[in-house]
């Protein structure tokens, strides 16, 4: 864990841009584009946010966080931070990394989903690698990072719903062969990009996405979970998650998003068949059945043995 200080706070519409640094100016752990850090905002209030700064900058972490209208506490707590405040953060983790062998990278960010794309563009530009960036927002007035993008050296494409909307068919056609696509933003945008890319011949392995929020149904039939390494057995009730049931038995699981999108509670399955409810594992990984996200997924059988 790191204790950092908010050295700059800037509000752009509904997005707060925070710059974090060590109070003594010590270099921060390195990160690669697509990485995020967990902010520990209060007891049991931990939220992951993408780093949107330049990965070459070892003295600052930058975050852009939208104030959600239906916030469960995370974005409200972040927007309450002031310059000079201290905040505990995790070291960077990357679950959305660039493919180093891609001949061209197509970056598509919608709304606050632009944040990981900013770091990706900085990394790709610094390395002299081929890429293009498209940013979609409802309007120029509501969009964050516009001045930063317009001042950049890599000529991003800006799409505003009240000016010129994104034409996915054209954007996905105007790229070299074997291009890798990266998309982050509202679910509707990510679903549209995924469907259109597959329809235009992109292989599933060439399409990468990261969710910021997701609707997930966690209820279901009761079942037993055995944490093999801890020697704990619990019954997960119909309206409980595995995380909640284990916590009642004294076994605390590291969780962050609680929506099955960040992967922090990913655990190996030793025995039994998971009922995957997450948005993190790929279809192939879900079919393998040897991993589970404990914050939201359940079991298709009466007994699940996990390596915990």
Automatic annotation (TrEMBL):
Domain of life per record: Bacteria
Protein's name according to its UniProt entry: 2Fe-2S iron-sulfur cluster-binding protein
Pfam families reported in the protein's UniProt record: Fer2, NAD_binding_1
Residues covered by the FAD-binding FR-type domain: 1-99
Keyword Iron-sulfur: yes
SUPFAM superfamilies named among the record's database cross-references: 2Fe-2S ferredoxin-like (SSF54292), Ferredoxin reductase-like, C-terminal NADP-linked domain (SSF52343), Riboflavin synthase domain-like (SSF63380)
Domain 2Fe-2S ferredoxin-type: 221-308
Lineage, opening ranks: Bacteria, Pseudomonadati, Pseudomonadota, Gammaproteobacteria, Enterobacterales
Residue ranges crossing the lipid bilayer per the database entry: none
Keyword list, A-Z: 2Fe-2S, Flavoprotein, Iron, Iron-sulfur, Metal-binding, Oxidoreductase
Alphabetical list of InterPro entries matching this protein: 2Fe-2S_ferredoxin-like_sf (IPR036010), 2Fe-2S_ferredoxin-type (IPR001041), 2Fe2S_fd_BS (IPR006058), Beta-grasp_dom_sf (IPR012675), FAD-bd_FR_type (IPR017927), FNR_nucleotide-bd (IPR039261), MRET (IPR050415), OxRdtase_FAD/NAD-bd (IPR001433)
This protein's record includes keyword Oxidoreductase: yes
């Amino acid at each position: 864990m790191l204790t950092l200080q908010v050295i700059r706070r800037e509000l752009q519409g509904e997005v707060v841009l925070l710059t974090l640094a060590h109070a003594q100016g010590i270099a921060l752990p390195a990160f690669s584009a697509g990485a995020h850090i967990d902010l520990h905002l209060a007891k049991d209030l931990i939220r992951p946010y993408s780093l949107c700064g330049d990965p070459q900058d070892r003295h600052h972490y930058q975050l852009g966080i939208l104030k959600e209208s239906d916030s469960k506490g995370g974005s409200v707590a972040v927007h309450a931070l002031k310059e000079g405040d201290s905040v505990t953060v995790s070291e960077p983790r990357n679950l959305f990394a660039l493919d180093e062998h891609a001949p061209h990278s197509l970056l598509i960010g919608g709304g606050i989903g632009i944040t990981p794309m900013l770091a990706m563009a900085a990394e790709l530009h610094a390395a002299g690698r081929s890429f293009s960036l498209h940013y979609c927002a409802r309007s120029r007035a509501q969009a964050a990072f516009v001045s930063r993008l317009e001042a950049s050296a890599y000529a991003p494409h800006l799409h505003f719903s009240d000016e010129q909307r994104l034409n996915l068919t054209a954007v996905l056609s105007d790229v070299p062969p074997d291009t890798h696509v990266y998309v982050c933003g509202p679910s509707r945008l990510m679903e549209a990009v995924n469907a259109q890319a597959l329809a235009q011949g992109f292989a599933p392995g060439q399409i990468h996405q990261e969710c910021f929020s997701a609707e997930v149904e966690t209820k279901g039939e009761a079942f037993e979970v055995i944490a093999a390494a801890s020697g704990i057995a619990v019954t997960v009730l119909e309206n409980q998650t595995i995380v909640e049931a284990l916590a009642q038995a004294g076994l605390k699981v590291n969780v962050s998003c609680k929506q099955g999108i960040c992967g922090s509670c990913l655990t190996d399955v030793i025995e039994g068949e998971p009922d995957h409810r997450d948005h993190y594992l790929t279809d192939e990984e879900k079919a393998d059945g040897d991993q589970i996200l404990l914050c939201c997924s359940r079991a298709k059988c009466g007994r699940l043995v996990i390596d915990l």
